[in-house]
Write a structure and sequence with these properties.
Order of helices and strands: HEHEHEHEEH
CATH superfamily: ATP synthase, F1 complex, gamma subunit
Strand content: 5-15%
CATH topology: Pyruvate Kinase, Chain: A, domain 1
Helix content: 55-70%
Shape: elongated
Radius of gyration: 28 Å
CATH class: Alpha Beta
Length: 289
């Protein structure tokens, strides 16, 4: 059994660790509220724009058909926009997302598709793909606690340009969708080409009047559509990150408290055994005299 001094050192060490995890839990809770407010504020706009773009995919536009709306019959080249966190200590958030992506990549490989290319937003996903030997065509890291669209446009544009040039046939986006504080869902969904069935609504044609013309309106709308969905996915991922980190740090603080109680119990037993031994020695000495 360890000595009393050694046990006291361990107790002090765990207490210091609990102070750190408790502070990180409080910081994550504060950031989580702001991230959730930002995410909830952007959802209605993103959902409305996604719905409008889905209706546009079913619209009867004879004069112009944007490449984002043009399907490839047998897609062979895949592009993925992978959104992860820059920092760790957020439980299995990144692990679950990367597991979903790797399983889908195995499915693509079984179908005979080419190895996908990646745009990585977030340090964890970028590091994982670099270790795996994945082809990363662009990346953005160290986004901070607040996403800014100007930080995302450049890396995302590289993937969009590759799609327009025919270098990739389909673009997917992978991120953690915020459900509630205790649940974040790893999501991998198709971003391009846009399908009229993207929202799961019954398919029917839509007629629009375009001013000044179909090409200018559709070009601007669909570029804004892609930027908005990527920005909203980053906001969802940041809200998920702070929620997962708060829960993980709370669990770490609780576990540290349990460890401290166990160590204190061991320390008390050790101290009591030492006292009993000393008393026994004194009594034995007195009896011998």
């Amino acid at each position: 059994m360890a000595g009393g001094k050694e046990i006291r050192t361990k107790i002090k060490s765990v207490q210091n660790t609990r102070k750190i995890t408790k502070a990180m839990e409080m910081v994550a809770a504060s950031k989580m509220r702001r991230a959730q407010e930002r995410m909830h504020a952007g959802r209605p706009y993103a959902e409305k724009l996604q719905r409008l773009a889905a209706h546009l995919a079913r619209a009867n536009v004879v004069d112009y058909r944007h490449p984002f709306l043009t399907k490839v019959d047998n897609p062979k080249k895949i592009g993925v926009i992978l959104i992860s966190t820059d920092k760790g200590l957020c439980g299995g958030l990144n692990t679950n997302l990367l597991r979903v992506l790797v399983n889908r990549m195995r499915g693509w490989q079984d179908q005979g598709l080419a190895h996908p290319v990646f745009t990585c937003i977030g340090n964890k996903g970028f590091g994982f793909m670099s270790r795996m030997g994945g082809k990363v065509v662009s990346h953005a890291v160290q986004l901070g606690d607040t996403p800014h669209l100007e930080q995302l446009i450049g890396p995302v544009k590289v993937m969009i340009d590759a799609y327009l040039a025919g270098e990739v046939d389909t673009v997917y986006i992978a991120f953690n969708q915020f459900v509630n504080t205790m649940k974040q869902e790893a999501t991998l969904e198709q971003l391009l080409p846009l399908s009229g069935d993207a929202l799961g609504t019954p398919g029917h044609a839509w007629d629009y009047i375009y001013e000044p013309g179909p090409q200018q309106v559709i070009d601007d709308l669909l570029v804004r559509y892609v930027e908005t969905l990527v920005y909203q996915a980053v906001a969802e991922n940041m809200a998920s990150e702070q929620s997962a980190r708060m829960v993980a740090m709370k669990s770490a603080s609780d576990n540290a408290g349990n460890v401290i109680k166990e160590l204190q119990l061991v320390y008390n037993k050790t101290r009591q055994a030492a006292i009993t031994t000393e008393i026994t020695e004194i009594v034995s000495g007195a009896a011998a005299v």
